[in-house]
Write a structure and sequence with these properties.
mainly beta, 7-stranded mixed β-sheet, single chain, 4-stranded antiparallel β-sheet
Length: 124
C-alpha cells in the first residue's frame, strides 16, 4: 500500500488549495478514505472522510462549508478542496486508508495506512 499526498504549499488567508492523494497497492474503490491534519505540538486531527463509492462524506465542524472531500475511483485518487483558508488551517495534512469494518472513521485507530503528509501553511 502506498499513499502519496501532493498539492500543499503556502496560501494567503481566504485563499484556496487542492490536495491530492495518489493511492496504489490495494483496491482503492473498496475502502473508506480520510484526511487528517497535525499542527506542531498538537494531536492528529480528523478533517474529512469519504465512503468507498464517494456517495457519502463527512467533514469536521472546523472546516464545514470550506473544505470538500472527493475521490476519483477510476484514477485511484483522493482529493481535498480547501477554500477560504484560515491561519488555523496550517498543518501537515495526511491521507489515510480506512480499515475494513471500521466504525468511527473520525478516529485515527480506524485507519491502517498513512501517507507521508503535505504541508499547508496559511499566512499573509
Amino acid at each position: 500500500v502506498q499513499l502519496v499526498e501532493s498539492g500543499g504549499g503556502l496560501a494567503q488567508p481566504g485563499g484556496s488549495l487542492r490536495l491530492s492523494c495518489a493511492a496504489s497497492g490495494f483496491t482503492f474503490s473498496s475502502y473508506t478514505m480520510g484526511w487528517f491534519r497535525q499542527a506542531p505540538g498538537k494531536e492528529r486531527e480528523f478533517v474529512a472522510v469519504i465512503s468507498p463509492s464517494g456517495g457519502s462524506t463527512y467533514v469536521a465542524d472546523s472546516v464545514k462549508g470550506r473544505f470538500t472531500i472527493s475521490r476519483d475511483n477510476a484514477k485511484n485518487t483522493l482529493h481535498l478542496q480547501m477554500n477560504n483558508l484560515k491561519p488555523e488551517d496550517t498543518a501537515l495534512y495526511y491521507c489515510a486508508k480506512g480499515r475494513s469494518g471500521g466504525y468511527d472513521y473520525r478516529d485515527v485507530r480506524n485507519y491502517d495506512y498513512w501517507g507521508q503528509g503535505t504541508q499547508v501553511t496559511v499566512s499573509s
